[in-house]
Amino acid sequence: MECLRLHGGSNSVWRTGLVFWILCALAPRRVFCTAGNGSAALEPTVVNVGALFTYASVIGKAVKPGLLAAIDDVNSDPGILKGKTLNLILHDTNCSGFLGTVEALQLLEKDVVAVIGPQSSGIAHVISHVMNELHVPLLSLATDPTLVALQYQYFLRTTQSDYFQMQAIADMMEYFGWREVIAIYVDDDYGRNGISVLGDALATNRAKISYKAAFPPGASASDVSELLVQVNLMESRVYVVHVNPDSGLTVFSVAKKLNMLTTGYVWIATDWLPSYLDIFDAVDPDTMGLLQGVIALRHHIPDTSSKKNFISRWKNSLRESKGLNSYSLYAYDSVWLAARALDAYFNEGGQLSFSNDPKLSDTKGSTLNLSTLRIFDGGRQLLAKLLATNFTGLSGEVMFDVDKSLVHPAYDIISIGGTGTRLIGYWSNYSKLSTEVPEISYEKPPNTSASSQHLYSLIWPGETTAKPKGWVFPNNGKPLQIAVPNRVSYHEYAEKDKSPLGVRGLCIDVFEAAVALLPYPVPHTYVLFGDGIRNPEYNDLVSSVAENKFDAAVGDITIVMNRTKIVDFTQPYMESGLVIVAPVQAAKSKPWAFLSPFTPEMWCVTGIFFLFVGAVVWILEHRTNHEFRGPPRKQIITVFWFSFSTMFFAHRENTVSTLGRLVLILWLFVVLIINSSYTASLTSILTVRQLTSPIDGIDSLIKSTQPIGVQDGSFAWNYLVDELNIAASRLVTLKSMDDYQTALRKGPDEIGGVAAIVDELPYIEVFLGKTDCTFKIVGQEFTKSGWGFAFQRDSPLALDLSTAILQLSENGDLQRIHDKWLTNSACSVQTNQIDSSQLSLTSFWGLFLICFIVCVLALSVFWYRVLCQYKRFTPEPEAETEPHEMQPSGPSRQPTKAASFKNLIEFVDKKEAEIKEILKRKAAQSKRRPAESSEEFSISPA
């Protein structure tokens, strides 16, 4: 916060200089010189620390006693600066940037090792450059956020930056649901930079500063009045006042006269206001009367015992001050910060030595005695000690983060009412808005979710507890001018009327129902847009809203991309999209219609599987079932008969093998599914009236060269030309439903006729409802959009009405309004193409796959068993020989592969019972032969 002179005038430049030189002559300064380097060191028993502030300002009156009390406490504490005395040199900046800079230079001539202050951001910006040159740390009370720049190396803020204060205001805006704010500020470094940070903070919460109302320092009441009159004509009713106490009170005084502190207004003041109020034990009732309902932010100071003791001491002994505010405590802690850092500096062997600055020594011909400004040799080391210092002071924990800002920034949020203030919550950088003391929040995990943000209730301007909506209509409540398209067709949606509203239709009813749900009145009047001879251009209608010719547009306005770039739309209240309407006729019956249920691929695969399954069953049954045996001709007929008779479950052959029955059961299930599907599809094809059109969708329409009908004024023209690259010469503009019917009946071959019409679905539903099903929607809806109400950019009504439209949709009112104006027709469905009823292989490939796998597994098991039998089987000779009969000698003959395969086939062709009998006999013979051989062996010796 900046300086404010409460009373008295300002000293002249010559008086300031004279006082300075007198003080220099009287000040007890003992120095000793070091040879050769032109440097001098102060006697180590006295350490000079400077202070810059405006004595007669709000901050000055609170800071000075705090500084003096801290100096007394430091010098009386034997545990710090052991044997050294801290000497405070005060200089008055006179609330002037120029005089403040001069006073700062004069202060630096006194070889101070640190400077506390200034409170003015403007002076802080200037003298920070001097501090960089002379290596003197600056412990400032200025709150300008830009002072944390890296170029100000020796600047150290010992209060909270306005950066955090603006973050708190942005979070309050989001908490209360406001999206726009008007910033009223003093046009200096303090005001401009603070409001700039506020704009950035609001942007992160999707809010903004709608207007910056700046006035120069020391502006008169008439200047402020002129500014507020202009502000009062604007839409936003949320004001952030970031000024000095003198101009701030002027702002509220003028606002009171302009009746701007009544219901509907929101006033948020930064920390300047509590700082002003806190210095008085009892604020003037007239002043409090100007601030009723105002919200303000005050630096949060933890309620500690040391703070309570200091306040008690302040009231009892420091009579020269009227009151205590947060800057008093920050000033007190600043002195202790400097003392602790100096103590650490001296403990590490630091000395008080100063060197001449060669840049200032070489100023020939100048009457300014700049050579008296010298560099503090230990400035860098002292700055490091300051940044490393950590202690708990009256203002809380004094510790700096990497940005050289105090840790744990927090604010009290207060509401002014009656003769005092009321705490409604806290803001901290750790947990944002909360009703819990920040010190308690620090002990818990951080939680900045929206659900965790809380404030107590408060009384707003006008003595109301209802939260203001934060905005009004421009021009001080003038009714909204709402444009309505003056249509010549489809009057169901919007048309001119003789009622008090002047218009009627589905769109009007939806808007009126949504407005009725708002918690505040919305005065409005309807203005017809268009000449009534032809439908207006909707792009022109939307552009008129964007150009501030109308406040909003209500009607059948499609939400498309190029329109959303210039206006804000509400939530769509009706779905829309482009569709194609074309003439249709009943499909002629075909002699081969019975083939239509299945696609050709489906027929082929089904036939192949009939033969495949028949062959599999024949293989599995051939060895065990006599019905599957006989001459080859008979077997082929059996396979074909069995395969196709399963389609009707009329097969006569029984299956006796386990594998054959397994395959047959699964195949009959597949046949059942195929038969049922075929029957259902054929029934649909033969009984439902099939309608056909030469146009089957947007792709065929694009490929053709036939004319296309488009509604006059519709966005469909631009979409077809710009997005789908359809030649504009193919498009025919149609004005009414009669034109639609005439153009479609003529067809593309006659003049004025069209092959199809491209229009939005809501219009087509009405059109088809008034036809005899001669026309149909063909193809699919190829765009997705909706109808909404258009408002100027950033209008709060767009968001509120969107919420209301959603409420209408949820409670069913939106559907009731739709049913009131529109009648659904059986013709408003797409054409039923015959191909769409055909069943393809895609629907059945799973069944076929399972059937194929089972057949393969069954065959694998069958052949495995056959091969096992074949290994045990040896063909019997035609004539048995005696065991002792000698076989003719000669080379043995191995069977060929062809003979082996032939033997295998012959083996497979044998009956299962015959094979088992042979194997049984061979097993008995193999047992008898070893016995006969043993008998011969026993008889032969005799």
Automatic annotation (TrEMBL):
Domain of life assignment: Eukaryota
| Chain ranges of the Ionotropic glutamate receptor C-terminal domain | 481-824
Question: Which SUPFAM superfamilies is this protein grouped with?
Answer: Periplasmic binding protein-like I (SSF53822), Periplasmic binding protein-like II (SSF53850)
Q: Can you supply one Gene Ontology CC term for this chain's record?
A: membrane
Q: What is a single molecular function from GO for this protein?
A: ligand-gated monoatomic ion channel activity
Which InterPro entries does the record match to this protein?
A: ANF_lig-bd_rcpt (IPR001828), GABAb_receptor_plant_PBP1 (IPR044440), Glu/Gly-bd (IPR019594), Ionotropic_Glu_rcpt (IPR015683), Iontro_rcpt_C (IPR001320), Iontropic_Glu_rcpt_pln (IPR017103), Peripla_BP_I (IPR028082)
* Transmembrane residue ranges: 602-620, 662-680, 844-864
What subcellular locations does the record give?
Answer: Membrane
GO BP annotations of the record are: cellular response to oxygen-containing compound; response to wounding; signal transduction
Family in the record: Belongs to the glutamate-gated ion channel (TC 1.A.10.1) family.
Entry protein name: Glutamate receptor
| Organism of origin | Kalanchoe fedtschenkoi
